[in-house]
Amino acid sequence: GKGIRSQDPRILTELVTSKEGKNEYPNLNLYIKYNKLYDRIDQNRIFSEISELEGEVKLRLCEREEEKELVKLSRMLGVLQDLILYLNYIMLIQKLSDYLIGIFRLTSF
Questions:
Q1: By CB atoms within 10 Å of each CB, which of 26, 31, 72, 109 scores lowest?
Q2: 0.70 exceeded by the pTM?
Q3: How do residues 7-46 score in pLDDT, each as one tens digit?
Q4: Closest by alpha carbon to 27, among 56, 59, 1?
């Protein structure tokens, strides 16, 4: 077959809908369907579900209460670390904003 390289995804649709395209690129229609399905996936939801399942598996693998408690504490530590990272990010943005405002005031004379 002919090699097709294009940044414009519409060319794939045009090829699939044309008679010549259907004959020359039989798997192209399957590829487009795959991409449409992939685009409908809610990636945030998937990763959230994966995290929940990992937590459940960890808890089920625990044999003693101390191990279960450690898994729960580890999960809470992860949440706290994420919160601290977020707060550090907010503080950095605020400092950058203050800095830029200060520079603007100095250069506006």
A1: 109
A2: no
A3: 666 776 776 677 766 667 778 778 878 888 999 999 889 9
A4: 1
Does residue 5 form part of some domain? no
Q: Please, which residues have CB within 8 angstroms of residue 22's CB and are 6 or more apart in sequence?
A: 16, 29
Residues 32 and 63 reside in one and the same domain? no
Assigned domain for 72 exists: yes
**Maximum pairwise Cα distance, the chain:** 70
pLDDT confidence bin for 109, thresholds 50/70/90: low
Range of the domain at 31: 10-39
> Do 49 and 98 belong to one domain?
yes
Q: Coil, helix or strand for 100?
A: helix
10 Å CB burial of residue 16 (0-12, 13-18, 19+) is middle
User: Please, are residues 30 and 16 in contact by the beta-carbon 8 Å criterion?
Assistant: no
